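Moderator note: this is an archived Q&A kept for reference. The question asked for a predicted structure of one protein chain; the sequence and the answer are reproduced below.
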Amino acid sequence: MVDRALLSMDLAPDVAEAIKACNAVIQVKFPVKIRGKVQIFSGWRAVHSTHRLPAKGGIRFAPCVDQNEVEALAALMTYKCAIVDVPFGGSKGGLMIDPRQYDRDEMQLITRRFTLELVRKGFLNPATNVPAPDMGTGQREMAWMADTYKHLNPEDINYTACVTGKPVEHGGIHGRTEATGRGLQFALREFFRHPDEVKAAGMEPGLAGKRVIVQGFGNVGYHVAKFLQEEDDCR
């Protein structure tokens, strides 16, 4: 996808490679005692670009996450921010874990330990690198991460800005939970405002009455389906 886009921009090959490359990536391995036994967890945080700070991007908890995935997602964060002129670089993180296999207290221990590793290595900070919810994470995990950062950096008066997507009562903002789904709704509306693009895609103008197929029904899928049905008369 990125290669096809770069070809259309007529960039020199060396510039194209520079645009794709990640600036930095770390892998951490850390032990946590769970149910009387020590388990080793692996996590990553990639920074694609620091041309504007802080670098911004989610942290996902999933059993299949790996370094290649977080590097690719970090690059996409840079591109997305640049396209809409949001003043952030791109970053992404992941922890190899199946959250369904652990209870709340165990997930809190693991999340806080992962946060400790990221903070110690300079990959979580309000000024330079700010995570957010992603697949397998949400307000709960962001609250734990922010609280851990606060205890490690009590002198930082901007500690609440170390992550976004926190609960409102912990410094978050209203509307964050549904924001990604809302963004997809707005993107579709914008697409249908351009008749030439709609025609090129072989579609009829207008969102009303369109049948929309949603892959997945998590936080993003649920909200985009809800908004498109309730506000744009989609099916």
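Archived answer notes: The chain is about 40% helix and 15% strand.
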